[in-house]
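Tokens for chain A. Residues wanted.
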């Protein structure tokens, strides 16, 4: 039976007196373009939406429904790190920067933070723990994963209108066959991550054939 997130991490933290527990997750580490997006969510224990799960396992319709339920009762914030920050810092550090911005945007600082993955942001000074596969284990992290994915997907749809032909409304900037071919045919846009190998290689090819 597939694992579903529950509130065991949150219950354990609250038993220690850490009442405001925030889940934090990011999306967009793998795409070749666009920002990396993170969300922080402090769920109301009395209003935990039914059916929270890893955002990748949910249909777009179900994610949209859960976004409405999460934002109606939770303290939440979505934040980004830009393409320029990704290229300057590296994708891991940019992801952590987006997470810290999301935490800073909450109405009130949490008492404890559950971070998806195996590393905590170096600048995080709050009580925290890293939770591997957290979006499949913690309801708070699952809620954050849903908000982050919906926000970034919507942003990529907007960028697809500005830069048509790359299929971002379908692939969200991930290196699909369609996206890679468009890079060869149409070139690199200002919102592509120049530090990522497929983009970097194309830029090097263009530079090598320039007069």
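Reply:
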């Amino acid at each position: 039976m597939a694992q579903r997130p529950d509130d065991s991490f949150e219950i354990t933290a609250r038993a220690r007196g850490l009442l405001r527990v925030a889940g934090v997750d990011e999306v967009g580490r793998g795409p070749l373009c666009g920002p990396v997006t993170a969300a922080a969510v402090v769920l109301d224990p009395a209003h935990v939406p039914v059916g929270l799960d890893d955002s990748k396992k949910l249909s777009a319709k179900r994610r949209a429904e859960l976004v409405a339920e999460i934002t109606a009762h939770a303290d939440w914030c979505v934040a980004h790190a830009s393409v320029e920050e990704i290229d300057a810092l590296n994708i891991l550090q940019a992801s952590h920067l987006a997470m810290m911005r999301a935490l800073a945007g909450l109405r009130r600082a949490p008492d404890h933070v559950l971070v998806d993955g195996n590393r905590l942001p170096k600048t995080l000074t709050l009580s925290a723990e890293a939770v591997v596969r957290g979006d499949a284990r913690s309801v708070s992290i699952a809620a954050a994963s849903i908000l982050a994915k919906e926000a970034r997907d919507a942003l990529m749809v907007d960028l697809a209108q500005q830069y048509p032909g790359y299929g971002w409304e379908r692939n969200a900037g991930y290196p699909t066959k369609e996206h890679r071919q468009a890079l060869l045919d149409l070139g690199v846009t200002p919102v592509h991550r120049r530090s990522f190998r497929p983009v970097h290689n194309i830029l090097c090819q263009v530079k090598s054939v320039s007069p």
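Residues 25 and 145 are 5 Å apart (CA to CA). Strands lie at 21-27, 36-42, 75-81, 112-116, 128-131.
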